[in-house]
């Protein structure tokens, strides 16, 4: 997307916002959706908005892309009142430096710990190359333990960028707790939950199942195929599910470095007729698969704030997830879903059986989830964001 120049400002448009984002449509992902929403909605509330996507420089060599992006922010931020970065490193660092030179207010959104994520990716590659299974390190534990030089450099960058921000937006109280561990002043941090455009059309359940030519119990899970998403545990307990429901099937949607490892586990357990790895699916297709299912499971070891859970609640399918990260801020155990321990095979298996066996109970959870999801509307998110922008 080309930079939009601030011109012909209306007298009522008293603040100009430059949004620096790593992703923007046609890119897919949370930052792309969020940035496009701000571009569409903020002008309705007396803001003039421009977006600068990192996609414009992504094809350049690693060091050059950040240098070029810095100069783009420097040029585009000249007439901005606020430079609003959507992550603390890729766009955050060049945006912070440009804001400092231009003497502009710097707003930062943090949806995760970049240093931790890169550390986990490195661990994933090490496990694959050495055929080992180094233990997953929780985000909380990562905050207090030293690591290798590159990881520590990334940690220093993201924390320095955060400390220089006028305000920081996080999508959950859990992530606020993590950012506080960075040594950030609590008064700078605002929790604004990500919004959902609920009541989206996902199709008729019976029609979708007929088109899929599927009969029986269907369990679905989705996400990036990485170690901390716990898909291997879901595969390991599936024979237990099959003993209770012989016609049960499992679909795992998503792509990632663990694809080969998960497929081998499926083959070794002779479950290739019962478990399917679909790869990444377009959002509308994934929602239809979810609509056709009986239970959605997210056995994750890390979740800052899961937009996926909100979508499942909106579609109207009972769900099971872990009492990890921001999940308990969305799901109240036994009220609008079920919470289990991460990789707790026994509790996970029992919970799946419970929801597959007791439709009345599952429907009760769905009804309460439908009510709860309305608390996370896009309108509320925009309203709270505008309120914050007006204080800067």
From TrEMBL:
<protein>
    <recommendedName>
        <fullName>Glycosyl transferase family 1 domain-containing protein</fullName>
    </recommendedName>
</protein>
<feature type="domain" description="Glycosyltransferase subfamily 4-like N-terminal">
    <location>
        <begin position="49"/>
        <end position="196"/>
    </location>
</feature>
<dbReference type="InterPro" id="IPR001296">
    <property type="entry name" value="Glyco_trans_1"/>
</dbReference>
<feature type="domain" description="Glycosyl transferase family 1">
    <location>
        <begin position="215"/>
        <end position="371"/>
    </location>
</feature>
<dbReference type="GO" id="GO:0016757">
    <property type="term" value="F:glycosyltransferase activity"/>
</dbReference>
<dbReference type="Pfam" id="PF00534">
    <property type="entry name" value="Glycos_transf_1"/>
</dbReference>
<dbReference type="InterPro" id="IPR028098">
    <property type="entry name" value="Glyco_trans_4-like_N"/>
</dbReference>
<dbReference type="Pfam" id="PF13439">
    <property type="entry name" value="Glyco_transf_4"/>
</dbReference>
């Amino acid at each position: 997307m080309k930079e939009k120049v601030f011109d012909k400002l209306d007298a009522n448009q008293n603040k100009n916002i430059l949004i620096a984002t790593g992703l923007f449509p046609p890119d897919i992902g949370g930052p792309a959706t969020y940035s496009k929403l701000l571009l569409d909605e903020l002008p309705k509330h007396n803001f003039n908005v421009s977006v600068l996507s990192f996609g414009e420089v992504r094809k350049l060599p690693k060091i050059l892309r950040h240098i070029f992006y810095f100069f783009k922010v420097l040029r585009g931020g000249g007439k901005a009142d606020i430079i609003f970065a959507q992550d603390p490193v890729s766009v955050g660092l060049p945006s912070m430096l440009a804001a400092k030179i231009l003497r502009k207010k710097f707003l930062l959104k943090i949806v995760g710990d970049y240093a931790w994520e890169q550390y986990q990716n490195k661990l994933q590659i090490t496990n694959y190359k050495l055929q080992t299974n180094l233990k997953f390190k929780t985000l909380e534990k990562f905050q207090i333990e030293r690591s290798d030089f590159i990881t520590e450099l990334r940690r220093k960058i993201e924390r320095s960028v955060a400390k220089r921000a006028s305000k920081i937006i996080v999508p959950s109280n859990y992530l606020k707790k993590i950012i506080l561990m960075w040594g950030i002043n609590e008064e700078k941090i605002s929790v604004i939950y990500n919004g959902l455009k609920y009541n989206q059309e996902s199709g008729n359940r019976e029609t979708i199942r007929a088109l899929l030519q599927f009969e029986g119990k269907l369990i679905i899970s989705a996400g990036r195929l990485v170690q901390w998403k716990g898909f291997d545990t879901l595969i390991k307990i599936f024979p237990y599910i099959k003993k209770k429901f012989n016609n049960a099937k499992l679909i795992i949607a998503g792509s990632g470095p663990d694809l080969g490892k998960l497929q081998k586990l499926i083959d070794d357990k002779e479950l290739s007729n019962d478990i399917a790895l679909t790869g990444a699916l377009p959002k509308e297709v994934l929602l239809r698969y979810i609509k056709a299912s009986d239970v959605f499971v997210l056995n994750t070891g890390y979740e800052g704030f899961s937009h996926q859970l909100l979508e499942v609640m909106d579609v109207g399918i009972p769900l099971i997830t872990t009492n990890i990260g921001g999940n308990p801020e969305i799901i109240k155990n036994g009220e609008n879903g079920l919470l289990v321990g991460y990789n707790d095979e026994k509790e996970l298996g029992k919970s799946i059986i419970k929801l597959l066996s007791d439709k009345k109970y599952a429907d009760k959870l769905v009804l309460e989830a439908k009510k709860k999801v309305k608390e996370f509307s896009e309108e509320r998110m925009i309203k709270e964001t505008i309120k914050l922008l007006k204080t800067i």
